[in-house]
């Protein structure tokens, strides 16, 4: 802990997406004058040490012991990204054993520095961390890397399993009726298979119920866009809920992930510079998801037939090794890559694209996205409308929020078994990019939202955005609680 600075303990779940976003949050917190103790398991801390962003001396990395083999996991499995999906639950359950090490770490910190941290902020998968912090009289908050609405729907489905009581393909959420009507295609595979007694449902329910023990809930979102979801948690948990985003991954944060790229940001920007303003479609399904082989063929044909320029991050389709080398002949129509290249129509990127630079470029008009929350925030911040093709987790509900509440998106498909036709994709592209009333409305709305998102983080003498105010309010409360605890202990 740096002398003279109040200390904040951050503890993300062991998944790359969680860790890098917590790191971005940590940098944000240090800019507010706090020091951060960043906690994780040994291999994750080692990885972070090797690629730690410069200028982060107020962040101290701290490892707590964890041995994956003790929990029936393969050796050195400390990150969901190295595990098959079927073992994710085991890692989540294994993380319950981090309770004692966290308690010891907090005790050691207090003993070493003679003062308590101002708060512990843990991942939403670590609902139990509230008990540990409270035992030691420390304020505890949960930080959600996803938005309020998406997480509210996700929780409500797990708590209620509303699709189990009905033969219909549509249903409502009993404790979240304002979220509207849902369709079974908006459920994840594990939700469809869930029952009252299965272990995933039990884990989810136990964890979600523990959230009400926290002192506060922080979302990486913007209050003005995500009020319905944030209100759900205010009502459900009865604790303060803050929208403090968008916290976005900077280039430095990205340097912590060792992604291979086939096109540099400079090359991408150079190519985009030659295109007309608002003329290019960007297509990406995020860092983990992919589509089926037949969907990929239809998407390829639709992009071709649309006559528009595009940048497409092509990952091996379902059924291929996720690390397989790019196989144009197998995955795309015959001669596709050559034709697109000869016409200078598109960039087909394998592995990893410089997404932030792409979405910030004025030539980009549309983002066909899986609606992962980081992608959503990056699109909104740049005023880029979306075509939603959610694949997993709370992405279905992020898409619902964008379509029904924010008004900057149309959906084209859901998941990998959705029978999406070439014409459907072309129709949606024309709807958003073409000269029609709906398209104009979506584009105008996206421009408005861009301003809302930017305003939320404006921190000027005469203007504080909603996210800036929320962050200040959170720390004022945490500091006050700390002082009160000290006062009580010494009286
Ligand atoms: N991303 C990127 N290049 C890619 C794919 C993804 O830079 O080719 C980044 C993207 O900008 C975003 C993150 O990876 O910040 C993906 O997070 P998101 O929440 O959108 O989806 P996830 O990968 O977690 O499903």
Automatic annotation (TrEMBL):
<dbReference type="Pfam" id="PF26168">
    <property type="entry name" value="Glyco_transf_N"/>
</dbReference>
<keyword id="KW-0472">Membrane</keyword>
<feature type="domain" description="Glycosyltransferase N-terminal">
    <location>
        <begin position="8"/>
        <end position="136"/>
    </location>
</feature>
<dbReference type="InterPro" id="IPR035595">
    <property type="entry name" value="UDP_glycos_trans_CS"/>
</dbReference>
<dbReference type="Pfam" id="PF00201">
    <property type="entry name" value="UDPGT"/>
</dbReference>
<comment type="similarity">
    <text>Belongs to the UDP-glycosyltransferase family.</text>
</comment>
<keyword id="KW-1133">Transmembrane helix</keyword>
<keyword id="KW-0328">Glycosyltransferase</keyword>
<feature type="transmembrane region" description="Helical">
    <location>
        <begin position="7"/>
        <end position="29"/>
    </location>
</feature>
<dbReference type="InterPro" id="IPR002213">
    <property type="entry name" value="UDP_glucos_trans"/>
</dbReference>
<dbReference type="GO" id="GO:0035251">
    <property type="term" value="F:UDP-glucosyltransferase activity"/>
</dbReference>
<keyword id="KW-0812">Transmembrane</keyword>
<protein>
    <recommendedName>
        <fullName>Glycosyltransferase</fullName>
        <ecNumber>2.4.1.-</ecNumber>
    </recommendedName>
</protein>
<keyword id="KW-0808">Transferase</keyword>
<dbReference type="InterPro" id="IPR058980">
    <property type="entry name" value="Glyco_transf_N"/>
</dbReference>
């Amino acid at each position: 802990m740096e002398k003279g600075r109040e200390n904040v303990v951050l503890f993300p779940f062991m998944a790359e997406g969680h860790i890098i976003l917590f790191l971005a949050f940590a940098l944000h917190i240090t800019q507010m004058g706090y020091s951060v103790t960043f906690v994780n398991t040994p291999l994750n801390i080692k990885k972070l040490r090797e690629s730690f962003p410069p200028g982060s001396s107020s962040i101290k990395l701290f490892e707590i012991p964890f041995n994956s083999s003790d929990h029936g996991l393969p050796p050195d499995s400390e990150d969901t990204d190295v595990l098959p999906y079927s073992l994710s639950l085991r890692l989540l359950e294994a993380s319950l054993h981090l309770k004692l090490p966290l308690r010891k770490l907090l005790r050691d910190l207090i003993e070493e520095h003679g003062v308590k941290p101002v708060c512990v902020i843990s991942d939403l998968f670590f609902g139990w961390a509230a008990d540990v912090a409270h035992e030691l009289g420390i304020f505890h908050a949960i930080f959600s890397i996803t938005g309020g609405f998406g997480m509210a729907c996700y929780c409500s489905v797990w708590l209620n399993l509303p699709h189990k009581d009905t033969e219909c393909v549509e249903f409502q959420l009993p404790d979240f009726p304002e979220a509207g009507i849902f369709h079974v295609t908006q459920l994840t595979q594990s939700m469809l298979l869930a029952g009252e007694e299965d272990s995933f449902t039990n884990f989810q329910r136990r964890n979600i119920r523990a959230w009400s023990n926290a002192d506060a809930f922080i979302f990486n979102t913007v209050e003005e866009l995500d009020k319905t979801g944030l209100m759900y948690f205010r009502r459900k948990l009865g604790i303060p809920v803050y929208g403090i985003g968008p916290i976005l991954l900077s280039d430095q944060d990205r340097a912590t992930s060792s992604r291979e790229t086939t096109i540099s940001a400079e090359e991408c920007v150079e190519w985009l510079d030659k295109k007309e303003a608002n003329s290019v479609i960007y297509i990406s399904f995020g860092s983990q998801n992919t589509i089926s082989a037949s969907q990929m063929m239809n998407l390829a044909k639709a992009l071709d037939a649309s006559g528009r320029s595009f940048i497409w991050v092509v990952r091996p389709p379902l059924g291929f090794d996720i690390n397989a080398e790019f196989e144009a002949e197998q995955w795309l129509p015959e001669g596709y890559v050559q034709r697109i290249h000869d016409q200078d129509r598109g960039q087909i990127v394998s592995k990893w694209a410089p997404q932030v630079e792409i979405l910030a470029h004025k030539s980009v008009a549309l983002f066909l996205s899986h609606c992962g929350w980081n992608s959503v925030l990056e699109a909104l911040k740049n005023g880029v409308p979306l075509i939603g093709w959610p694949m997993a987790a709370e992405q279905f509900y992020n898409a619902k929020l964008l379509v029904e509440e924010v008004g900057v998106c149309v959906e084209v498909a859901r998941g990998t078994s959705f029978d999406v036709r070439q014409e459907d994709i072309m129709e949606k592209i024309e709807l958003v990019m073409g000269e029609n009333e709906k398209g104009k409305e979506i584009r105008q709305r996206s421009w408005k939202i861009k301003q809302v998102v930017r305003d939320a983080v404006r921190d000027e003498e005469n203007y504080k955005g909603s996210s800036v105010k929320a962050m200040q309010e959170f720390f004022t409360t945490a500091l006050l609680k700390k002082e009160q605890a000290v006062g009580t202990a010494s009286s």
